[in-house]
Amino acid sequence: xxxxxxxxxxxxxxxxxxxxxxxxxxxxxxxxxxxxxxxxxxxxxxxxxxxxxxxxxxxxxxxxxxxxxxxxxxxxxxxxxxxxxxxxxxxxxxxxxxxxxxxxxxxxxxxxxxxxxxxxxxxxxxxxxxxxxxxxxxxxxxxxxxxxxxxxxxxxxxxxxxxxxxxxxxxxxxxxxxxxxxxxxxxxxxxxxxxxxxxxxxxxxxxxxxxxxxxxxxxxxxxxxxxxxxxxxxxxxxxxxxxxxxxxxxxxxxxxxxxxxxxxxxxxxxxxxxxxxxxxxxxxxxxxxxxxxxxxxxxxxxxxxxxxxxxxxxxxxxxxxxxxxxxxxxxxxxxxxxxxxxxxxxxxxxxxxxxxxxxxxxxxxxxxxxxxxxxxxxxxxxxxxxxxxxxxxxxxxxxxxxxxxxxxxxxxxxxxxxxxxxxxxxxxxxxx
Length: 432
Description:
single chain; about 20% helix
């Protein structure tokens, strides 16, 4: 009798365990932990099921084929130090595809994968040279290849090219991060129209970014690349950061607005910046600084239509060309920027001079071997020469000028606009 009771108790425990933790091969919509090919084979019949999570993790596994499974919400392959080959030949759809910490992985084969609904995240795959993704045929929505709909992150891999990814029928994506891929030389995102964030840095120095179809972006952070092709980019809602690159030209012929800061720095070969239709930098109060510095070969900046910078402006370079244009038009930018702080700046100058945070402007033209500073003194010059201001307030109150702008006594005469006008004339003569 006692033995029968033990057997019944053991059976009850087994049934309860099976109910709380589904066994491999049950095809229930739940999680599976794969440590061997036998584990993978046990769910190969789940082609008609959407599996919630499949995690591949093993210290000894060298090769794995995941047959049969067509839909996996979360596929995670990580921390397999000996894994060299992974294949999921029947996988069509996933929300999240995470492949990470596989130092020996050389073959990643997903030839039928059509949809990555949320994120594709590959990290620390130093031996992976190429990805075998879908290249032929259309998905149920008529989109070719493998389509990513939200985030793309490839960090610390051995990938050499990215030219076979697509972005659905909308062409929109969230964040793109391509970081620390020393073999990556070519990125071609055909059909990509917009992205929330683009970060590309610390890849192969000869990398070229082809973004011909991109018309709108959130923020661009571009570092250590050889070239970027953006002929149709019209709007950036965030920052444009271009640091430590090797190209000779920055050309964005369609770019009209940058919503955040613009920083161009430490690009030793950069000779020309051509933004012929850019009208504004910054999208709010004291937001949107414009900085160009330490680009030793830079001589030309083309900003024919720029008329507003919401934050500070500091330009440093040789500027053997376009100097006169910059000096003349940055003064107009000052007034336009001040109007963002106070729309009635042209009507009541003391209000402007009492602002706590005014934009600052600096221009150093080492090609002329004379530093030129466009700062608050130039603001006074601009306001003095403005016709509507001259009509109402030809000479601003001296205490306000002295207290808010810190101008020297020789400028603060009884007729400060005359002195400031002379200062501005000197600036123009230097730049001429």
